[in-house]
Amino acid sequence: MNYIEIISKNYPTIGCSIVGDPSIYENIRWDNENDIVSKEILDGLVINTIRTNVWESIKEYRDSRKFKGIFVSGKWFHNDADSRTQWLGLKDKARDVLTAGGTTSTVLTINHPVYGVVPINWNTMDNSSISVTVQLAFDVVNKTGDMDGILYGVALYHKSQIYASSTPETYNYRTLWPTVYGE
Prior knowledge:
Elements: H1 3-10, E1 16-18, E2 28-30, H2 39-65, E3 70-72, E4 75-77, H3 81-99, E5 109-112, E6 116-119, E7 121-123, E8 129-131, H4 134-164
Antiparallel strand pairs: 1-2, 3-4, 5-6, 7-8
Helix pairs in contact: 1-2, 2-4, 3-4
């Protein structure tokens, strides 16, 4: 990380340019002499700026994994934002079924305007179809919440590691994550 990168991250309103090697402090040309930041201050900001950048990369990586599937009952289920909403609705329906005397193995149904009462089937990530039971609705929603918590916890673990490291730019944060569809 060079001085211009440090200045732009930590002092975005200070104007300056560089002549020559950006890793040499004396090559900085300040737009306003009242805005000059000392070499000592900038050098002290390097490690924390790197840590902040790596932490942002960890959060991006965590978020990239968040919607890549939930493994339940031997199948991978979609868990994108729309699917999450649909599964919450199915869990609500499952509660209604239990209240009406159904069991956890009862297949959820909808009242179709043409075909009448039909079972709800879900297309999984491998393109197979599975009947949605009360238990499956509960399990998918619960597993989704568990996955969110695990992703958050792994990210915090990696954050603690980079903030404890004197070389955070070399830290491999792509380990310990739960498996997602396709891995």
